[in-house]
Amino acid sequence: STIVSVRHANDDDQPALRELSARAVATLRQVYRPTPVAIGAKHARRANRQCLVAMIGPITVGYLEFETRPDALRLLGPMVDPDHRRQGVARALISQLIAIARNTGTARLSLATIEQTGNVEIFTKLGFHVVSRAPVTDAISVKNEPLVDVEMELVVSSLAGSDHRMAKSLG
User: Is the pTM of this model over 0.85?
Assistant: First the structure.
């Protein structure tokens, strides 16, 4: 099976991350596009963000941006290269984020995703559960359908006994 290594991003990663982002976002843009206000808000928060990078050998295959909030680590992403999906890349990134949460005493990971992207199912398989659903206000549907914003979380403390299972599924 494929070995995915995860580390903190550095400045040298930026060109590869920009290219990967463009490729990964292309599939999302078939469903929705963010409003100018949403894009501006995302850029404004950039300073508070950290980034993990996933590698298979020398190739950058994914990344995960996150923010530290008082009660949670907030995921923005993860982004996985379309050619490397279903290879454990997102799982490796989230496993690393769980380790960071444990080390910092953070109780949970949180994220928001748009239901129509199909990502709710993926995040559920990775240990997240749905907290709430609401109409999307910061994105426009490409297909002119109502979009649903899904708030999800993963409670870190409840995973105490599942470390070995997580490690096994990564292997």
Answer: no
Give how far Cα 130 sits from Cα of 75, 90, 109, 124, 151, Å. 14, 18, 12, 8, 6
The pLDDT of residue 85 is 83
The distance in angstroms from the start CA to the end CA of the chain is: 7
* Burial label, 89 (beta-carbon count in 10 A; 0-12, 13-18, 19+): buried
**CB contact at 8 A, 4 and 94:** no
Query: Look-up: residue for tokens 């992403």?
Result: 77
- Residue 134 three-state SS: strand
As a whole number of angstroms, the distance between CA 158 and CA 164 comes to 14
**Residue 28: φ, ψ to 5°:** -65, -35
